[in-house]
Structure formats: C-alpha cells, structure tokens
Amino acid sequence: MFLVDIQKEIKKIAPAIQLNKEKIKILFVEKLQNNEPDFLHMFQDDVNKIEGFTMSLIDMVFGAVMQESLKQFIPSIKPMVHQYQSLGLLPDHYKNLGKYLIISIREALEESVTHEEIIAFQLIFYRLAEIATRLEKSDYKKVKIGMQTWFFKSFRVVKKVQESDLVVLIYIVPIDGNIAPIHGTDNFVSVRLTMLNEAPSLQKSYRVIEKTGHKGYVMIINRSANDRLTDYLFNRLSEGDTLEITLPKRNRC
C-alpha cells in the first residue's frame, strides 16, 4: 500500500506539471543534450514529438499513485520497459533519466513546487525504476544466443521488396545463424546504424513479422515516418548489407 502522504503530495504536484509540461520537456531535453546525448539518440522518434518522450515517464508516476499497490501497476509498466529495453536503455540509465527529469520539474515549477512534493515524486519514480530494472534483468536472462545475451546483433539483408510507394519489406537473417522466435503479434525491433563519419549512430524501432520458409525476420518500413534512418532503409539499403538489430519485443508503446 502506498503511503497516503506520498500519494497526496504527488496528486498536489500533478496539475502544476501538466500546466508547465512544455517548459519541463524543453529543460529535460536540454539537460540530456548537454549530459546524456546518447539518450536522445535512443529516443529519436519520441524526441521528434517530444511531448510523449517526457510525459510518458511522468505519466508512469501519476498512473502508479492511482493504484493501491505497485504490484497492481506492473502490467501497465511492462510495455514501456520492453520498448526502452529494445532501444538499448540499460537498467542504470533510469537513474540518470530520473535525475534530469526531477531537476527539470523543479526548475520549471520554481516556487510553485514544495520540497515534499519533489521528494514524493522522486521516491515513486525510483521505486518504479527498480521494478523496471528487475523486469529487464529477467528478460536478459531468458534470452541468450550462444553464450552471450542478445542485445544488438548483426543481420544480413537477403531480400528487399517494395510493397507500395510507402511500404518496403526488408528480409533479414542473423549472420551467426541463431534466431529467436517471435511470439504473438505487434512485435518490433530496434535498428542501429552508424552513418559514415557520423556519431552517434541512428536508431529507430520498426514492426517485424515472420514469413513461412524465411529463417529470419521481415521488417516493415513505412516511408511516412520521415526520418533519416527510415529514408536510408527505404531508399539506400541494399541486399547484402548488414544491420544491427535488437531482440523482437511485443506491445510497443
């Protein structure tokens, strides 16, 4: 059961956060750009529509305090954990995300936020981060290719089919020959690609399916995404090229 006083403090701060969300997200992105640029690289899609990037973490806290226990909230947090894991977010990264998010909230709200409200938000955020970390570690233990946990893995493009003006299917197979099965529907993988003389590399999530007789995955690339990595995969990627791919995950946020 949540402590009643913590719930009250977070519920008091919620309206001010919603009112100042634009300021919070601008401060948050600035701090990541200055201190953790790889985070922005990981969340390239969400940074382009920055509201979802910042508020999803805040909404996680707000959603949790509406529950009688954190255990009840675990099913709600799993989709976000799976997406973050596929993007390359490691358990320790939550600490830095939380740090800069809380600093941004404090700076944005200034005198309108109390020390008690900030502490309450911080306590719940880091408790949820601990749960997310346990979920991620459990997944890492379950999925092993050879002797190493699969994080990013090299795949070769064996076929590229243009379904329409907006959709391309990219057939990929693991270079080492080892593949993990896809379970259920609505799966996605993250692609990481380093462009020539550029750093950091580009990264984005794409829907992935299985095709009968194909010993790999088929990525669905939708041109309407309108970003550099999608443009590269749609127009410049060729059969025989290699890509770094993460383990397929379900329930994209």
Describe the structure.
This protein is α+β, with helices and mostly antiparallel strands. Helices cover about 50% and strands about 20% of the residues. The chain has a six-stranded antiparallel beta barrel with strand order 3-4-7-6-5-8. The protein starts with a helix and ends with a strand.
Structural descriptors:
253 residues; alpha+beta; six-stranded antiparallel beta barrel; 51% helix; elongated
The gist of it:
With 253 residues, the chain is α+β, with helices and mostly antiparallel strands. It is 51% helix and 20% strand. Helix 5 (50-65) packs across helix 8.
Shape type: elongated
- What is the radius of gyration? 20 Å
Oligomer kind: single chain
Termini gap: 27 Å
- Kindly estimate the percentage of residues that lie in beta strands according to DSSP: 15-25%
Mean pLDDT: 77
Count of DSSP-assigned helices: 9
What is the SS-derived class?
Answer: alpha+beta
User: Helical content, roughly?
Assistant: 40-55%
DSSP strand tally: 9
- Summarize the main sheet: 6 strands, antiparallel, barrel
Order of helices and strands: HHHHHHHHEEEEEEEHEE
Strand order of the largest sheet: 3-4-7-6-5-8
Please mark out the parts with pLDDT under 50 across 5 or more consecutive residues, or reply none.
143-149
